[in-house]
Protein 1
Amino acid sequence: MHIRYLLTFRRFFLYLLLGLFSVHYAHAADNIFVNYSKSEGLVQNTVTNSLEDTRGFMWFSTFEGLSRFDGYEFKNYKHSSKDPYSLPNNFTKKLLLDSSGNLWVATKNGLAKYNPLKDNFTNYNKDNSQLNSNEIFTIALNEEGDLLVSTTANLYIYDDLADRFLPLSANGVDLPVNIKVIYSEQDKTWLGSLGQGLFILEHPCSVYKNPTLGI
């Protein structure tokens, strides 16, 4: 009785493994990988970020420009010193869709907003806006859908009605510089800095804490 049960269990276990292997193989066989590179029209082979916009286009930021993919071919965007409505810089770091569906591009030398009707960009930098640095570290949305912009020197919130960038502070205290990561929740925003640890910006009381330092 015991031996028969053991043999039956072993047989069942073997069938189970074979079945799982067959299912895994079937799913693996369904995976199709397609490689897109400069040979297929991508502007550059190092992709830093990607997203899909409200019209279904896929966008890819790279070290040497921006690519838009319609499912068939790429259209590439690069900086041109002769065109003020081109990208401000080819080193594109981060892409983001705001709450209105606008595409923002963070670059090493300014921030760009894509204009779909004209197929060009409105650029923001320290010469034509309130930003005090041209290098954009990251961009994100806060809990209310407002655009947050981190430069090498400050964190800003974008006022879309006034088309202005307002420096953020907490109870009159400047926020840490060199913010590389922003993650916003309903009651707080997490700020990851370059070399200064992690900060928490608490929304109700507008204060921030540094859990790395225990404060």
Protein 2
Amino acid sequence: MWIDGIDEKDNQIIALLREDGRMSYSDISHRIGLSRTAVKNRISALEKAGIICGYRAVVALQPSPQAMTFVVNIETEPGHFEEVRDALTEEEQAITVVQTTGRCHLMAVCIAADRQDLRDFLNRMYKKVPGILGINANTVIDVAKGSLLPDNTLIEVRANDEKRTGAEISAKNQ
């Protein structure tokens, strides 16, 4: 990924941090041919400019062998779209929810603890929300290219019973 508007060294720094967000200033400096201080100053400037928005741990979304990733397409009645969308976004299984064109109006990438959790999720959606014309759930067997979640996805976490994003927690802990 190349970012226009910043120089080659800053783009090299970003590329290295995307590979390893914990890479030290010294390691980066050796790899791109700048001093450790210059790398530190450049990273600080990239953070202040909002180009580097934070650092995070990448956690396996399927922590157990029984966990399932699945993609759900939901067709809604036009008058119930927002209600269905809001109900879907409230479900803990729904990781990413997007509005789509075509016959299905909503698509979600979801994680279920096991098959029963998947069944419960689907039944709950049908019973909880009027206006669902159809739900098509497909289990993900393998990801051939890319990832199900974009690199910039922040998964909401709970800290001290206060709902915040990972970036907000990182900023508070600095």
Protein 3
Amino acid sequence: MRTIQKFASAVVMRSMLASMSPKGKVVALCAICAAWLLLDQVVKALLSGYAQGMVVCSILFGLIDIRIVFNTGAAWGIFAGNPVLLGVVSVAVCALLLAYFVWDLKGIPLVQIAGIALVIAGGVGNAIDRFAQGYVLDYLSTTFMDFPVFNVADIGVTCGIVLLLVGMFLGTGDVKRTGSKTPAHETKDDAVAEGEDAL
């Protein structure tokens, strides 16, 4: 079963690498990042006129309320009152991810490109709020569980991290499978062919 899993991972990895040129990867990163950032900023602009604590409406059969929260900290209110510091940290993380993308441009798979783009879009989206307003506008509140109010940018960061981990898992499987091939695994025909070449 593990052999099948590694083989499938390697096939998926190679197909994703082969399907895009470095230029195509840059375009994909910019497109995903711009689209998610635009979505985040448009939704925030639409809700910016509502007062703190106001429930605008319910969506998804009442599972989520659109409730306005001005968050000066991070999730669960940690580091509250430090929006500029959190904004700087967000920008620094985005810069590191962008540097990693450039460093591994030829080898990075599409799933990790999407992950990096979503994290950058989410980080920049919330950083814009922190620098411009001193708080992040959160508005998605779950009614079925006690969970911090979040926004589209937060969804991007979370999904992006998941995609990055998936890409790392697939990459590990591919490396292990590739690294396991040694001269000891050469077939008899390969050895004969090499002997004929030597002659």
